[in-house]
């Protein structure tokens, strides 16, 4: 153990100044980005100032705007996501993570996701609904890239599993359903009438795509729980909204329930298969 400690100390001592500077800059930028995202979230909540997201951009992002809009309660998950991302930002800022290869690979992607999150809130606050879609789509791409890196590398311990893999996984799962809701809101805003196809057919199709993405993530990710939890949470609230709120749509609610069941079953099966493979 002493030999390993000496080796690590020597590595840090021999690190080139430019490399050390970049590593520290990465840690600081991630920490600042997480704070920026939280500040933007307060603005988006309208608690102190700013317009609540549900009321901004013409109200098209409200829970009763489209068939794919999750119920208001769904957005409570942001508190968990922001807490998790802040925990990750603090954890990765520790000296022990400064030259960690996994954090070096994922760090800038995480910072980009937090900045894009704040940009999305700012765009919506400025009532630029149409610009919000490319922003959230780019956020989804960045989070997918982060997930790929996490999947390709191994965490050092359980703490990293929770604050890195867990927090980013929750973030990704929620943004999947949020992107679908955002896109649907824009179609509604421009007066898209579905080419004569019933709205419930379109909503069921969108939910089927979300379920397919969740199933793919489950099997490719070895049954990782965090993305499935947040994605299922969002889809469940779509069901709740369609059964209890306007626009009332039991067919969409049923499609949402089926989507959740498929995501959960796929995640459990993928997890069992992954654990068996590891034991072998």
UniProtKB/TrEMBL annotation:
Q: Which domain of life is it from?
A: Bacteria
UniProt KW DNA damage keyword: no
Is DNA damage there in the keyword field? no
Give the signal peptide range.
Answer: none
Alphabetical list of Pfam families matching this protein: TspO_MBR
Its membrane topology:
Multi-pass membrane protein
Ranges that cross the membrane: 28-53, 73-94, 106-123, 129-150, 162-189, 201-220, 225-244, 250-270
Q: Give the primary localization class.
A: membrane
Q: Which InterPro entries match?
A: TspO/MBR-related_sf, TspO_MBR
What are the protein's UniProt keywords?
Membrane, Transmembrane, Transmembrane helix
Q: What compartments host this protein?
A: Membrane
Enumerate the PANTHER family for this protein. SI:CH211-161H7.5-RELATED (PTHR33802), XK-RELATED PROTEIN (PTHR33802:SF1)
The similarity annotation says: Belongs to the TspO/BZRP family.
| Name listed for the protein in its UniProt record | Tryptophan-rich sensory protein
Organism, as annotated: Microbacterium invictum
